[in-house]
Amino acid sequence: MAVRIYALAKELKLDTKELADICARAGIPGKGSALASLTESEVEKVKQFLDGGSKKSAKQPKASGAPPAMERPRPAPAQGDRIKVIVTPKAPAPLEAVKAAREAKVTDTDTDTGTETETPAAESPAAPAETAAAAQSAESPQEQPTTEQAKQTEESQSVTQDTSPSPEGEGPLAGMVRREDYIGPGASAEGKPPVMGQPVKKKPKPGGSGGRARPAIKLAPIPGPSEPPKPKPKKDEAPAQKPDMRLPAEVLGGKAGDKPLAAHLRRAERNLEAEKARKTGPGFTDGDDASKGRGRGKGRGRGEEDRPMLGGREQRQLSRRRSNRSDDDDSGRGRGRRTIRRTSRRSGASTAAPRKERVAVQLPCTVRDLSEAAGIPAMQIQRILMQEGVMAKINDTMDEELTEFIAAELGVDVDFVQPVTLEDQLLTSIREAEDPEDQLEPRPPVITFLGHVDHGKTSLLDRLIGINVVSGESGGITQHIRAYQIEKDGAGISFVDTPGHEAFTEMRARGANVTDIAVLVVAADDGVMPQTEEAISHAKAAEVPIVVALNKIDIPGIDPNKAMADLSANGLQPSEWGGDIEVVKCSAITGEGMDDLLETLLTVADLHEYKANPHRSALGTSLEAQQESGHGVVAKVIVENGTLRVGDNVVCGDSYGKVRAMFDTLRPELAIQEAGPSTPVNLLGLDVAPAAGEHFYVLDDIAQARELAETRREQTRKETLGSTGPVHVTLENLFDRLEHTEEVQTLNLILRSDVRGSLEAIQKEFTKLDHPEVKLKTLLATVGGVTEGDVQLAHASDAVILAFNVVPDEKARQLADRLGVQIRRYDVIYKITDDLKLALEGMLRPEEREVELGRALVQQVFKISRIGVVAGCRVLAGVIERNSRARVIRDSTVIGDYPIDTLRREKDDAKEVREGYECGIKLSSFNDVKEGDLFEVYKVEEIGRTFDE
Ligand SMILES: Nc1nc2c(ncn2[C@@H]2O[C@H](COP(=O)(O)OP(=O)(O)OP(=O)(O)O)[C@@H](O)[C@H]2O)c(=O)[nH]1
Description:
29 helices, 22% strand, elongated, binds guanosine-5'-triphosphate, alpha+beta, 34% helix
C-alpha cells in the first residue's frame, strides 16, 4: 500500500523535506513532493536506509539475509501497481546521453508476478534519466516523473558518484545563468528552446561535484504541488504567451500601421467593437464608430474574457482606449463631443429654418426666399429646377407659377403675400384717415357732362359759365377734359367736361369717378344713342345722381317724348312721367332752360350736402396733363379733399415734384396759392406728365415723393419689359421679320400727342383694329413733339410716326426725309382710325399660319380601355392648349401630326397647361405613343381679308 511522503515523515518523526532528501539519497528518486507516494518496498528501503544510513552508503545493495532493525514485512504489490525500473546511469557525455536515450530499454514489471526487475547500472546502457522517465510517462500517467524530477535524480546520482571538486561550482560564477544552461543537452533532445520568463534550471555539468555528501545547494527547486507537470507542447496548441517586452513604437502603430503587430492591434480592436455591437444590438452607434477606427474612446464594458489575445503594450493601449471611452460614456464628455460635432455639421450644412408645411412668400420669390421660408436647403430647390431644365442661382427669382410648382414638388403649401411697399407705408394712412366731424365744411359739387358726341355738352357748359369753347375746338369735337368752377348766388359749382367721342370712354369714366352729379346730355333730335347708353352705365356705376339735359329743343319739329321714351327704356324714368329722374328741356343756342338746369343741379347738390375737410393735406385726381413750352408739365387736377398749396410736395402716379405754381382753369393767367376741395387747377411743378386718372397725394418730404415715384417707374418698366418678350432673334421673331419682308403684316407705329389723354384715346382706337391675323404694334406712345430719336427708332423698326396735334422739330424732319421715314400729322382722331384701317386691309392676304404654343415630353404611357392611349407628359416650354395640334417627334424625326383630343391636368379637363406642369394628352387617331416622344404643339391661325368679314 502506498504511503505518502508526509505520512511517512510523520511516522518517522522527520521533516517532510528531510524525508524527501532521504528518499533521494536512498535511491528512490522523484519523491520531492510531500504528496508523493512510496510503495511498501520503497518505504522499506527508506527505513533500511535510515537504519544504517549513517553507516552504509545508499548505493550499496542491501544484504538480503540481514533484515534491518526497523524493517517491517513488505506487502505484496497490489494488482495494477506498477513497479518502476530505476535506472541509475553513469554520468554520460551529452551526445552519448542522447544516443543512450534512444537506445534505452525500459522494462515494465509484470505486476501479476510481483517480482521486481532491476537493471543494474553496470548492465544497462547509459541513458538519461529523463528519457527513461518520458518512456515511463506514456504508460504511467499517475506517477510519471517529470523531466525536472529526472534531472534531480540524475543530479543527485551524479553528485553521489562524482565527488571531485568543481572549480566552477564553487567559484564566483557558480550561480549565474549561462547560455549553456538553457541550451543544454536536455533541451536539444526535446528540440525546444527554453521558455522565456520562466526560471532557468541549471543543468549539472558532466563530472560534477560528486565528492560532497549533501550538495543541496546545487539542487533544483522541488516542484510544488501547485505547479502542474509541464506537458510537452504539441503542434496544434496555442503558442506560449509572449513575454512582456518593450517593442519599438513603429511596430505598434503610427506610420508603420501596416506592420503585423499594428494590423493585429486593429483587428483585435475591431473584434472588440464588433463583439460589443453584437451584444448591444443594432441601434448602438458606438459600434459603428469603433468599426471606423476613429481612435480612442472605443470598446467599453467588456469583461476580461472578451479581451483579445494581446499582450504587453498592445493590451495596455487597448485598455487605455477602453478607459478613455469609458470616461466619455460615463461622464457624458464623449457624447458631448459628438453632439458638438453634429451641431457643427448641421450648422455648416444648412442655416435654413426648421421645415414648414405651409409658407408665405412674396413675389417675385427667390430660391433663397423659398428655402428660408420653408426650411428646405436651397440646393434641394435648385435640384428640382435643374430637373426641369432651369439652372437657377440662389438669388434668382421665380414667378408665381414656378414657385407653386416647386412648393408642390416639396410638399409645401404656399401663400403669396403682397409686399409692404413704400406706397403702403406712406399712403395708406392718408387714404384711410377719417376727417373729424368738426373739420368738415360744405364744398362745391362736381358736375360732369356726359353724352353722345355732338349732342351739345360743350355748348351747354359754355352757356352756363358764359364762355365760348366750342368754336375753338378742332372739328367741333372735344379733345380734352375741361374743368371749371363758377359761383352762382355765392355758392361754388365745379364742372367737368369729358370728350364725347367713344374713344374717350375710359377718360369719361374717370371723369365720372370724381363726379358728384352726372349731367346726361341728350339731343332732342337724336334721342339716346350708343354712347349715351354707355354714359348712363358709367354714371350708374359711380352711384351718382343723374340729371338729364334734353338739349336742342330749339330745333323745330323735334319730339321730346321720343327721347324721354328712350330714357325710360334705359332705366331713366323722367319725373314728369312719374319717375325720379329730372329731365330739363334746354337749348345751348337759345339759352332756354339754362336757369332751370342750374337750379336743378344746385337743388340736387343741396340735398346731398357735399362736405370735405379743407384743413388737411390735399389729395385728388389728375384729369389730364401736357407739356407746355415755357411751363414744363402742366397737370389739370381736381382737389377732392383737403387744400392744395403752392410749395406742397406732390406725388402723382410715377411723377412727383414740389408745386411751383397753380392757375385757375377758367382763367389760365390767374395764379392761385391754394385750392380747396372740389377745385380744379392747372398745376406746375411735376417732373413728368402723369397719366389721366392718377391720384395725387401731398407728402411731408420731397425725398419720399421722389422715392415713391421712382419705385413706380421701375415697376412700370419691368412690367413693360416683361410684356414685350424676347428681343433677340428666335424662330418666332424671324418669322415675323420674314412676314414683314414679304408683305408687311405687322405695322409698327410711333405715336406722339400733345396730351396724354389723346394718346390713350388713340390707342383705344387701335384696339378696334386688332385682328387675330394682323399685328398693329405701338413702339412708343408719349407726349411731346417728334424728335430725332423717334425717327431713328422708326428707321430701325420700319415704323410709321403718327403725330397728333404736334409737329416734328426741324432736325427730326430733315432726318426723316433722309431716311425715308413717314411722319403723318393728324388733328382729328377718327382720321387716324380710317387711315390705319385702309392700310391694314390692303396688307391682308388669305392664308393660314402656324403658331407654336409649346413642347411636352412623354414621360409615361397609359393604356385605358375604351379611351385609348394617354400620354403622361411634362410641359417643357410654352403652353399646351386643348384645341391645338401636336407634331409627334421621335428620335429627332417627325412621325406624325395629330389634333389633341383631350387635355387633362390630373383628373380634370384643362383648357391649357403651362410650362413645368404635368398633364395627360390624348391624340386623336394615334395610339402608338412611346415614352420619350416629344409633342410639338401648335395652332393654326387663319388670316381674313378685311376687318368687316
Ligand atoms: N340747334 C342747336 N344746336 C346746338 C345746340 N347745342 C349744341 N349745338 C350744336 O351742336 C354741335 C355740337 O356741339 P358740341 O357742344 O360741340 O357738342 P359736344 O357734345 O360737346 O360734342 P363733342 O365735343 O364732340 O363731345 C355744335 O355745332 C353746336 O353748335 C342746341 O341747343 N341747339
